[in-house]
Amino acid sequence: MPSLATEPSLYRAVLAWWTEHSARRGFLSAARAFAGVLWEFARDSRPARRKQRFGDVEYDWDHRVDTTSGTVGWRDRLLGMFLSPYQPTEPALFHEMLRNLNIDFCEFTFIDLGSGKGRTLLMAADYPFRRIVGVELLPELHRIAQKNISKYRSESQKCFVVESQCGDAREFVFPPEPLVLYLFNPLPESGLVQVIGNLERSLRENPRPVYVLYHNPLLEHVLAGSTLGRAGGTHQYTKYVNRSG
Ligand SMILES: C[S@@+](CC[C@H](N)C(=O)[O-])C[C@H]1O[C@@H](n2cnc3c(N)ncnc32)[C@H](O)[C@@H]1O
Fold first, then answer.
1. Where does the chain hold its CATH 3.40.50.150 domain(s)?
2. How many Cβ atoms are within 10 Å of 102's Cβ, its own excluded?
3. Which of 9, 10, 177, 184 is the most buried (most CB within 10 A)?
4. Cα–ligand 1 centroid distance for 71 (angstroms)
5. CA 101, 104, 106, 110: dihedral to nearest 10 degrees?
6. How confident is the model over 120-134, as pLDDT tens digits?
7. Which residues line ligand 1 (CB under 6 A)?
8. Contact 118, 149 (CB under 8 A)
9. pTM for the whole thing?
10. What is the CATH number of domain 91-242?
11. Closest C-alpha residue for ligand 1 atom 13
12. Distance from the CA of 105 to the center of ligand 1, in angstroms?
């Protein structure tokens, strides 16, 4: 699969998408899926759908930040159709996932691969993590995340070391400390295989506790086939863990 540079172009995103889909499903099926993506983008550009995308805006009103998918520009939305569309995590579900971890947060670093406008980074800051890191491929979403981090004020905030990095999740080097890794479908299958392979390598080099929260686990078989063990979840997310270290 061709690798995407830090500033992803539409051409490279489409080429990567096409290479993956045609290799898995064959030319005709990939061509049909490609037409489907363009059709979905056209439908998604209608005013009624734009209004629907603002359905996630309540968090922004409460915290005076910009994490809604409603204001994402057409180019990033189109890129998202071929990468993974930006959609922020719903707060109630996020807090349920974190509460169910049952860990001492102070020992862990929270990492969101595919962090978009950074909503999870802000929500994770309500827990006393050692630090919080987001990695986002699209520069515009990353810039908005940086603004959100600098604007965010909350009486419930417990972690103040929060950063958004602009880059490709597939090239992220995991820091050698205990981790909570959050994934909300940022990658196609080949990319997720690469990320989990990087994590397994990092765990062999530095055994330590790592939890993976996988929200909307469409590619769960990738984690199920890894050295991590399933430790719970619901139909909305799964939790995987490596307890070594
Ligand atoms: C479904 S959104 C999740 C946003 C955020 N994690 C949240 O839960 O609020 C997926 C994000 O992954 C980003 N993404 C797609 N491919 C990526 C890659 N290779 N590296 C980093 N981010 C990527 C997309 O731009 C999008 O912002």
1. 91-242
2. 9
3. 184
4. 16
5. -20
6. 999 999 999 999 999
7. 80, 83-84, 86-89, 112-116, 119-120, 135-138, 141, 168-170, 184-187, 191
8. yes
9. 0.93
10. 3.40.50.150
11. 114
12. 24
